[in-house]
Amino acid sequence: MSDMTPPPEAEVARGLRAAQAATPTGVTSVDPDQLMAMIEALQGRLGALEAERAAGQPAPVVSTAESLRDLLRVHAAHYPQTDHGDVLRLADDAVDAARNSLESGDGSVLHQLADKMVRALKKVDPGPGDHHYFRQAMGFADVHLHDAADQLKPPRAPAAEVTSSQPPAKIIEGSVTG
Fold first, then answer.
1. In this structure, is the dihedral angle defined by the CA atoms of residues 109, 125, 136 and 84, taken in order, positive or negative?
2. How many other β-carbons are positioned within 10 Å of the β-carbon of residue 73?
3. CA neighbor of 98 nearest in space, from 62, 44, 135
4. Nearest CA among 62, 129, 125, 127 for reference residue 91
5. What is the DSSP string of the chain?
6. Kind and range of the H or E run holding 50
7. Which of 39, 61, 67, 176 shows the smallest number of beta carbons within 10 Å?
8. For residues 132 and 27, which has the higher predicted lDDT (pLDDT)?
9. CB 71 within 8 A of CB 132
10. What digits encode the pLDDT tens for the residues 9-48?
11. Distances (CA, A) of 97 to 76, 91, 105, 108, 139
């Protein structure tokens, strides 16, 4: 490189300064109609994604019961020498009860089934060692299923119409009780 040739960085910097000088700074023009159309399109996409997510998600109480059942099935498959029939039937009952509890909002049956499952799981406890499917299932039965059942809300009943056999009360100005 000769002393007369500028380094490549200086040439890039000169090109950047020229590009910056060519573009106006400050206020830019915005087409409000185009901007509103873009916002509406984004809101539509967001609404569609929210609806898709809500439609594909089971209620927490149902997914908790299904997870418990799945953990027990995997554990039972690892230990075929032990009869897991009772606890697996209870897990199936818990899934059915969870689905039914969504309509009623009553989680008392789930609490009873969770307690029965804990007792049934203690009967098939594989003992010391790393039995992670069993330990997770025990946690789901002992804690998580109870928590999910506690979060149930009863469905809203339609408000009853308020009626009276008496004529409307007379309002007396200045009176506290009317």
1. negative
2. 15
3. 62
4. 62
5. --TTSPPHHHHHHHHHHHHHHHS--S-----HHHHHHHHHHHHHHHHHHHHHHHHHPPPHHHHHHHHHHHHHHHHHHH-TTS--HHHHHHHHHHHHHHHHHHHH---HHHHHHHHHHHHHHHHT---SS--HHHHHHHHIIIIIHHHHHHT--PPPPPPPPP--SSPPPPP-TT-S--
6. helix 32-56
7. 176
8. 132
9. no
10. 777 777 777 766 666 665 566 777 888 888 888 888 887 7
11. 22, 10, 11, 10, 19
List Cβ<8 Å contacts ≥24 apart for 111-115.
111/146, 111/149, 113/145, 114/141, 114/142, 114/145, 114/146, 114/149
Residue 129 tokens read as 């060692």
The answer to whether the CB of 171 falls within 8 A of the CB of 178 is: yes
Provide the whole-model pTM: 0.57
* Residue located via tokens 């606890």: 87
Tokens of 31: 């087409």
